[in-house]
Amino acid sequence: MGPYAEEAAGGRAARRPRSTDPLELGFTPRKPVPWLAPLLLISTGLRTLLAMLFGAYLDKRELQKALDSEIAKQVGPDGGLWLDYVADLGDGFNATYSVAYLLAQPELTVDGHRLPRAQTLVMGGDQVYPSAAYEAYEDRCKGPYQAALPTTPPEQPSVFAVPGNHDWYDGLTAFLRLFVRTRDRHFGGWRTGQSRSYFAAELPADWWLLGLDDQSGSYVDDPQLTYFDTVARKLGPQSKVILAVPAPAWVKAVDSPSAYDSIDYFIRTIIAPTGARVRVLISGDLHHYARYTGPDDRQLITCGSGGAYLYPTHKLPEQIEVPPRDTLARRSSPSRSYALAARYPDAARSRRYGWGIFGRLPRRNPGFATLLGVLHTLLMLSIAGVADFRIEASEQRLFSVPLVLMVLVTVLAAALFAKPPSTTGQRNVRHWVLGVIHGLAHVGLGAAGTWVWLALPFHNWSWPLPAAAAAVLYLPVIGLVASQLVAGYLLIASAFGVNVNELFAGQGIEDAKGFVRMRIDPDGTLTIYPVVVDRVARRWQVNPDHTPEASWLTPTTPLTPRLAEPPVSLT
Question: Out of the domains of life, which is the source (predicted)?
């Protein structure tokens, strides 16, 4: 077959790439997001602030009542169904495409189990990072998945998506254009199967798949409740539900009891009156795999391993109560205790990953190390201007930032860093204490750096040569040293439950990724296979197989998927 093939997905001629050049691929493979980059920190903070202040004004869910209210039906050729779940996928190319490549293969053999490609793919949120811009969706999400499955295979698999908080940063505009449309309803080789930002699909043997959009845990809008009221009329006591939600509220409710209220309200008012049972609650948002199980045999699964930086598992609580007993909701379901049954990576490996912060932080975030260098250079010049009583130093004092201001900025910035702005969660005493101690440590480092600098000959040069020498010589060195101080702080603070996310976001760990593949047999048995890959591919080559549905790129070193735990069966 030649380089051109008819693309069944959209009926367009799609030329297979002849190299990994972006002009050939049609998108630009991106590096992992440097989460501690100064501009990104500022922009993320602003987006979070806007989401907090104006989220309700940007909410497009109320407008979706004008769209079709479709209820999909998904069934495989044998009367059963293979179903995939992936979340938090649109980050660096190597990790994102490694997972997409595995999802797209006709069959995987994992720990002796033959797992055919799923007929239904569910994307569980945060399909793109760091924001929902058109270019980001193309390069970090749609492009890699198009390359993994360029055309629709004969079984015509479908894709459904739940929006996460990063998909919400533009009010769902890009998300709706990509997954909710009336023409060209394809996402690579998958057919888009939903008509709103939430969905319902009837599965074999009276299983149901429901995807909920609760806008970062705020509330469930009235048109959405009306839609699911219609769905509920089809449910009965024999019905079993897989509920996909944007975030693992059952875990987050440990620190923020109200986090689970929205999900509990939905289950209690929509599903429970029908007699149906929610057998699986699944979400992404936390970038690892974890499964909790309780006395009602309900599985609470987190699987946010689709491509974003790894999130630790060693801080997960061993026992949780769902709903939490201390919720302020006037009505709630009875609380039940759930035990942590499995996690990936395991706790020991997760701790080892944490220690990698010292090497990875400056390497993954050079802009952050540079910012630290600038701040410490200004701090040093301020201290030096006060400590030097020579007449010649008066010019330096005139042109340097006042010492009191620099100390206040340093301590305040560290205190705020201990609890970055978010739509949920409050600062408490431990955040302030650790943050202030961290700030004072930087002031101490600044004093030590000043003592060393004053012992060097550069300080005795005429102004502005000392400042120029500091920018050239002192800044890069102190930036690296300060980054190690931040790394040490993150490691210590994480032991107290502070800056746990920043400890791992700052490392941008690409490995330990995966997804969940599920099988519903015609008799109603659901089997859960958590597929993981310990190391993602770093090098890619053009696939010599030119059949239309073959992946465009293949790893130069084959990926070796395995199961995070033995298969879990529900009846």
Answer: Bacteria
* Alpha helices, DSSP H, located in 184-317: 222-232, 249-252, 261-266
Identify the residue whose tokens are 């429970």: 272
The CA distances from residue 463 to 262, 339, 341, 363, 394, in Å, are 62, 65, 65, 33, 10
| Tokens representing residue 6 in the block | 């008819």
Q: pLDDT tens digits for 321-339?
A: 988 887 766 677 788 999 9
pTM: 0.89
Q: In 3D, which of 135, 122, 289 has the Cα closest to residue 208? A: 122
Over residues 198-211, the pLDDT tens digits come to 899 999 999 999 99
Per-residue three-class SS string for 387-436: HCCCHHHHHHHHHCCCHHHHHHHHHHHHHHHCCCCCCCCCCCHHHHHHHH
Q: What is the mean pLDDT of residues 49-65?
A: 55
DSSP secondary structure string for all residues of 315-332: TS-SEEEES-TT---SS-
- 504-516 per-residue burial string, b: 16 or more CB within 10 A, e: under 16: bbbbbbbebbbbb
Q: What is the pLDDT of residues 506-552, one digit of tens each?
A: 899 999 999 999 999 999 999 999 999 999 999 999 999 888 889 99
Alpha carbon distance 312, 289 (integer Å): 10
In 3D space, the residue among 532, 103, 167, 95 whose CA is nearest the CA of residue 313 turns out to be 532
Q: What is the CA radius of gyration of the chain?
A: 26
